[in-house]
Amino acid sequence: MTTQDFQGSAGSDAGTTYPVAPGYRVNVRQGAGTNTALVRQLPVGARVQIRCQMRGQWVVGPYGTSNLWDNIGPGEYVSDTYVHTGSSGMVAPSCVN
User: Fold this and answer.
1) What percent of the chain has pLDDT over 70?
2) For residue 6, what pLDDT band results from cuts at 50, 70 and 90?
3) What is the pLDDT at residue 97?
4) I want to staple 28 with a disulfide (CB 3.0 to 4.6 A). Which of 34, 39, 72, 86 is the partner?
5) Which helix (H) or strand (E) element contains residue 67?
6) Residue 11: pLDDT above 50?
């Protein structure tokens, strides 16, 4: 795994990665909200594989306003407003709690 690729195991299309917003170091959170613990930070230019998605805290980001959060690994979530998926809706299955 390179510093550019942060891939999970399962997703709607295994192997598909999406770029994070150019120029941003995106925070990876433990849950679907900014009030959850910070796990790590993605480097500028990172790409992520979305394992599943869930609704959580509303966030305003470079790709709009949304309460959709992308699971990119076990216990790792990023706001969908920082990931260029080409869609304002879900592009992966719902996360099962």
Assistant:
1) 85
2) very low
3) 62
4) 39
5) strand 64-73
6) no
Edge-first strand listing for the sheet containing 52-61: 38-41, 27-29, 76-79, 64-73, 52-61
Q: Does residue 41 contact residue 25 with C-beta atoms inside 8 Å?
A: yes
- What confidence score (pLDDT) does residue 28 get? 98
- Residue 34 contacts residue 9 (beta carbons within 8 Å): no
Q: Which residue has the tokens 């306003």?
A: 65
Sequence-separated contacts (24+) of 39-43 with Cβ below 8 Å: 39/75, 39/76, 40/76, 42/6, 42/78, 43/3, 43/4
What single letter denotes the amino acid at residue 45?
A: G
If DSSP codes are grouped into helix, strand and coil, which group holds residue 79?
strand
- Residue 43 is classified by DSSP as P
Burial class (CB in 10 A: 0-12, 13-18, 19+), 37: exposed
